[in-house]
Each structure stands twice: as C-alpha cells, then as structure tokens.
Amino acid sequence: MTTPPTLPKSRQRLILSVLMMCSLLIWLDNTVLSTALETLADPVRGLGADPGQLQWATGAYTLVFATLMFTAGALGDRFGHRTVFSAGLVVFAASSLWAAYAADAGLLIAARAAMGVGSALITPAMMAILMWTFTGPARAAAIGVFSTSAGVGMAAGPVLAGFLLDHFWWGSVFLVNVPVAVSALIGLAVLVPNFRSPTPRPLDPAGMLLSISGLVALAYGLIRAGQVTAWSRTDVWAPIVAGLVLLAVFVLVELRVKVPGFDPRLFARRAFAGGNAALGLLLLGVAAITFYNAFYLQGALGYSPMKAGLANIPTAFGALVGAPLASRLVRRLPLRLVAVPALTVAALTMGGYAFLGLQTPLVWIEILLLVQGLSIGMVIGPVTAAMISDLPLEQAGAGSAVTNTVRQTGSVIGIAVGGTIMSIVYRRAIEPALEGMPGPVQEQARVSAEQARHVATALHEPALAQAADRAFLHAMHVGAAWVTVVALLGAAVLLITSPPAGKPKNHPLPEPDREEARSTA
Predict the structure, then answer these.
(1) What is the pTM of this model?
(2) What pLDDT, on the 0 to 100 scale, is given for residue 281?
(3) Which positions ≥6 away from 10 have C-beta within 8 Å?
(4) Strand (E) positions, 224-347?
(5) Contact assessment for residue 36 and residue 173, using Cβ atoms and an 8 Å cutoff
(6) Which residue in 153, 172, 245, 496 could disulfide with 168, CB within 3.0 to 4.6 Å?
(7) 449-474 pLDDT, tens per residue?
(8) Number of C-alpha atoms within 13 angstroms, CB side, residue 311?
(9) Residues 310, 499: contact at Cβ < 8 Å?
(10) 404-439: b or e for each residue (b if 16 or more CB lie within 10 Å)?
C-alpha cells in the first residue's frame, strides 16, 4: 500500500488505542526493571546478580534498541510497517517469557537483549502507522493523545513492579508483557493496514554491525573495569580500544554511504551537534543516577519494592510538568535561557545524591526527585525540538534517527560508567571491615552491598551489614559527584553551541518530544 487510505474515524480511534497499548507496554518495561534491580541482586529472592551483571541486564536492552532502531525503520518501508510491528511484538513477548523464567543472570541478559530487538522493531513502525493513519489537524491531536501513554507508563511502571515484587516472584515483572503483546497483535491483524513507503530506504547492514560491535566492546571494557583490581589487564583496555576503533570505522563507513541510517554529516551543524552532545551527557548522568537510586531506596534504606516505586512518582510528575512548561517558555524566550539553567539544575540535583544518607527524611528525597524530573523534562523537549527544526525538512527523519541513537548510547555508557565507579569505590570502602573474616565471606562481601548484607544476616553479623551500607553510601556519593561534573559539562556545551540570547527564531518549533522527556525517570 503506497497511499494512505481514508479510514473511518471509528477505526482510526481503535488503531490509536492499539498504538497506545503498545507504547504503554514499552514504557512499562523501561521502568519496571529499575525497581527490580535490588531484588535481582538478592541471592535468595532473586538471582544473586553482581553489579556488572545488573549493568548488562539494563544496558543490553538499551544498546540493542539504540543500534537497531534506524535499521528497523528501513525494514518497515520495505516490508510494511504492520509486518515489522507484528514481528517486533512476537519477539518482545517471547523474550519477556524467556526473561521471566531465566535461571541465571546470563540468561536474563540475553533475554533483555532480545527484548531490545523487539522494541527496536516496534517503535519506528508504531510512529509510522500513526502518521499514515491520521492526516491534517487530526494527526496533531492523535500525537497529543498518544504521548500520554508514555506518561502513564512511566508513572505506573514502578508502582506495578513494586506490587508484583511484593506479592510474586521477580519474573512476574516481565510476564505481564505477554498478554498485552498478544492483545496488540490481534488488534494489529484486525484493524491496521500494512502501510509501506513507495520509496523504501536502503538497509545499512555494515553500519548496524559496526555500531553494535563497537558499543558492545566499549561497554564490556567499561563494565569489566569495575570487576577487576587492575585496569592494565588486557580484558579491560583491549575491548575499550577495540570499541572506540570500531565506532570510528562506523562513522567513516556512514560518511561514504549515499543514504546512511546514521548520518554523521548532520554534526557539521553546530546547534545540532551541540544539542546532541548535551542530551547524550545528560542521559549518561540520568542512567547512572537512576541505577544508584534503585539500590539506595531498597538496599540502603530498606524500602519495599512498592514503597520504592511510589517514592519515584515525583520524578515522573516533574517530567510531565516540565515538558509542556518548557514548550511554552521557548515560544517567548531563547532556547539558551530556558534549557541551560534547567540542565544546570538537573546536574545539581544529581549532585544532591552526595548528601543523602541513612537518616535522610523521605520528604527531602521526594523534593529532590521532583525537581530533578521537572528540570530534565524542561531540557529534553525543547532541545530536541530545536535540533530537528534546525534541519531541512528532508533531513528531519535522519536527524531523528541520529538523536535517538545518541541518547540511547548515552544511557548505555552511563550505566556502564556509573556502575563501574560504584563497584570500584564500594570494594575499596568495604575492605577494612573484612579484616579477620573467612576468605569466602570476604569474596562475597566484596561483590556488592546486597551480597554483604545477605552474608551478614546468615552469620548474624550486624556490623558487616552496617559497614556495607556505609561503603555503598560512600560509593554513591563519589559516583554522584562524577555524574554531576558530566551533566554540568553538558550544560556548558549547550551554552556554547545554542543560539545566543536575543530574539527567538521566527519559524515555529514543533511540539517537544514528550515521550523522550518522560524517558528520563
């Protein structure tokens, strides 16, 4: 089908319902894992996963999602968006089932990577179907309604995960994906035509393989650095070097391709390059601080999964308020005066984690999370809109692919670097408390604070549990300081590269990408 059919309004509304269901599915999955990390680290209730394995369980999904998304869009043009969408739902449902019953951390990581494949196939097809189904003013209204599903998923995900973890085993947070995916598959088959582009984009297998292998090698080296005592080891520096070389080759290859999936030429535009760098650095910090937050609330403070999920709602609420607020402000003020202060505040809220302790009142944690969500929401929406609007219309699709890839890559590196800093500093801080203890106890306690608390409970050694809490807090404080520096660097980049303060541009900015603004919580 090469031209959009005129569908009855009732059918359009039903198609929108199916798309919202799928969007909700993706956003729920994005948020439930952070609530489940502490449980997965528990040797009794979970898989006894160490920090490196938890980094991979989080990062594998994002890494595959980031590197396959632009290829998935080309597949939809070639084979039909409903076909690719359906394939993505099948992969997502099957891999969710696999994750739910994974017997060890390695299988969970593999299942999460497969879920990333499913999400990468679903996301571009979902937006393409929406654009084909609605035209004119109805399209803008449909996008507005569609975007609310992201906010619902982001707010409901931690609470749903908390309820499931309080009443069922950890795999239930993945098992809930299956019936939703099956319902969406039925809706697609019954309601949605198989839209496809009359001029399909070429596939980019070389770019896909180089980007995946480069990011995998880089992430492996960074995560491995947190698991060993010496960075001079070959299994640390060699993957990092190989990853950087592969990514450099990826850029060179994309520069030679006539229609690349990831177009590095766009970075010649100062505002586009600076905006992407700033967002990449911001989301690096967000990923790291979210990783710390999961272990702080449930591990150090001892919150139940449900209480931790409820405690994170202010972040979602702040992001929901921040995105439309920034949209209104940039109509009256230059982007620099809105986004740079917001990004600076976001960085400072990450630094606020350096002052959290075991006795910090919940109200102060909630205020910190609310301000953090508000400021991040005020950055991502207007910066994304400004970057895309700065491009010629024919390059908007390529620009969107580049921006999504950069943001997801920032998240992958944030999880790798943030977790590695936490592991290294924790291991050094816990060492004095382990003197005189049996070797096996020392080895297990060095792995993570979760493992140390488990050993302390088994041996009736409350002093060891207290030492683990102190070591974790010290590691979180050091990590938060580094994350703050990275996010402040993003603010500096945005200050230098964004248009100078003055009269706002005459061309209208598109509505901010509210979905991406909500992805930060």
Answers:
(1) 0.78
(2) 93
(3) none
(4) none
(5) yes
(6) 172
(7) 888 888 888 878 888 888 889 999 99
(8) 24
(9) no
(10) bbbbbbbbbbbbbbbbbbbbbbbbebbeebbeebee
